[in-house]
């Protein structure tokens, strides 16, 4: 699977500091830092497309809506 390193993205593209926080909070932080990104909160295990999109950040959460994977552009 492609990672953010494949993106010609200018600016911040990873938010490890949001691990363990609420997914909705994490989404708002990311959107606040870069409003051009499409940020989606997704339950771990949900099916998603495998395409690379540098304007997309998926915020992976558990059943309690806690961020469990590093949100990364791509």
From TrEMBL:
<comment type="similarity">
    <text>Belongs to the protease inhibitor I13 (potato type I serine protease inhibitor) family.</text>
</comment>
<dbReference type="GO" id="GO:0030414">
    <property type="term" value="F:peptidase inhibitor activity"/>
</dbReference>
<protein>
    <submittedName>
        <fullName>Glu S.griseus protease inhibitor-like</fullName>
    </submittedName>
</protein>
<keyword id="KW-0646">Protease inhibitor</keyword>
<keyword id="KW-0722">Serine protease inhibitor</keyword>
<dbReference type="InterPro" id="IPR000864">
    <property type="entry name" value="Prot_inh_pot1"/>
</dbReference>
<dbReference type="InterPro" id="IPR036354">
    <property type="entry name" value="Prot_inh_pot1_sf"/>
</dbReference>
<dbReference type="Pfam" id="PF00280">
    <property type="entry name" value="potato_inhibit"/>
</dbReference>
């Amino acid at each position: 699977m492609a990672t953010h390193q494949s993106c010609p993205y200018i600016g911040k593209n990873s938010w490890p500091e949001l691990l363990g926080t609420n997914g909705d909070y994490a989404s708002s932080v990311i959107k606040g830092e870069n409003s051009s990104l499409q940020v989606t909160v997704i339950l771990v295990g949900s099916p998603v497309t495998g395409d690379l999109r540098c304007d997309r950040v998926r915020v992976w959460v558990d059943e309690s809506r806690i961020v469990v994977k590093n949100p990364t552009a791509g």
